[in-house]
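call fold(seq) -> tokens
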Amino acid sequence: MSSTSQLAENPGASGTGDTRERIVRSASRLLQRQGYEGTGIKLIARAAGATLGSVYHFFPGGKEQLAVAAIQHGRQEFTEMLRVGLGREEDSAAQALENCSRHLAESLRKSDWADGCPVTTTALETLGRIPAIEEACVQALGEWQDVIADRLQRAGFDETEADALASTVLSTLEGAETLSQVHRSEGPLLHAGRHLAALVESRRGEPAAGQSEPVSG
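ret:
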């Protein structure tokens, strides 16, 4: 019996961290592509090269517990992708958003249009039904918005305006990514990046929503 088979049969053996990581990565990718309802424990185990016993050893709570871990993994991956995409500190906020959109478009194309947002499908399928998964999705979306807002603040926007713009940026990128998948084209994401850059430029120097212009005299 090979060492890989031994580890799969005996989750307590050396290298269990690798087995758990394979399971979580496989679950994350399957949830990203197929959603929660379309992804079963047996399919995850097969994709990870693990046994059902290994899966339940690491995730005694079953599919729901594993889905939460998978969403958290997807959140971390996409956070890193956003940080890379938002790029160099010497770039303006507008340049950073265009670069980010281009980076997302290239990554999507390289996956043959399969790997979009890691949480969207699962979030919509489980909304109002599975609180632990819903909370994991909310945390992921919140973290991504915070990453964008932090980049805008470093570019000179105040906290209120940065948060409002970050919400708009994330919403736009999520929708553009779906359109890019449907049309199998980078176009929607690239168009979104250009328009988001123009939006950010137009907001420079304007008071945040709810604030009035300073009165002179």
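The two ends are 85 Å apart (CA to CA).
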